[in-house]
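Take a sample.
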Amino acid sequence: MKLCRYNEGSVGWVDGHNVYPVSEALTASGLPVHASMEEIIAHLVNHPGDIAKITSHKEHAIDLSKAHLLSPLINPPAVWAAAANYKAHQAEMIGRVGSSDRSSLTPDELMAEIFLKPNSSITGPGGPVILPKVSKHVDFECELAAVIGKTARNVSSKDALDYVFGYTMCWDISIRDPWGIGRQNTRNIRKGFDTFCGLGPWIVTADEIKDPHILNINVEQNGKNVMKANTSDMINDLRELIRFLSSVCTLKAGTVITTGTPAGVSRLAHGDHLKGTIDGIGAMELQVINEV
């Protein structure tokens, strides 16, 4: 099942070319009419039988092409982002901006570089992505992201995927040039500007993606293919990311874990059009504009 947010923030489920409102199907289960996506995720994890109520309630459909899709999540408990999690991207960034060589790091040492993106940075399908005046070099990164469905603490890698509610796409937009001469700003700052976290186009429930580690990722920039990769190339897979993060802190329902970008990142310019596609999830587009 694909769950989206659309128009004025309603939660819907996507079936083919139609979007159907979810709240109408779940009001009898005690959820408020304007329940958030985070509330609906928590409810469905605890009441999985209500998924059938949603998929059987086919009233008040909206044509998907006429629905204004929004980020599926706007207030997740956290957005955790893996850093340098593809070997080819590690090598790419050494050449692009002189990043340090991380090839000798242990898995946990590399995962200790995981960073947070603030909720204020979230943007949805279509964007926009706003290029800050302070920077002359902003890149895109396109990644598979998992949405946690139930509270996770000290989870083993073996059981980790049992805690995933579904999957979405994350665009991790990143400033590469630091503020000030010779200064290197933290990832939280460089990657935390407004509109620097694209999420969408919806959340695909975990039952539709049997293995998140064999998915193709493709990105077009202004119609030209600039990224072609597979999630099998991750250094630390999603099981390990959940194991590590849940050993550090409690992961609550709605938490987003984005798994790092493959090689193929590119500098952005005003007027750029991005289109990313991930197997099993679908496509999401973004428009890039300068800050005014």
In short: Helices lie at 23-26, 37-46, 50-56, 87-97, 107-111, 187-190, 238-248. The first strand starts at residue 2 and ends at 6. Residues 2-70 form one domain. The mean pLDDT is 93.
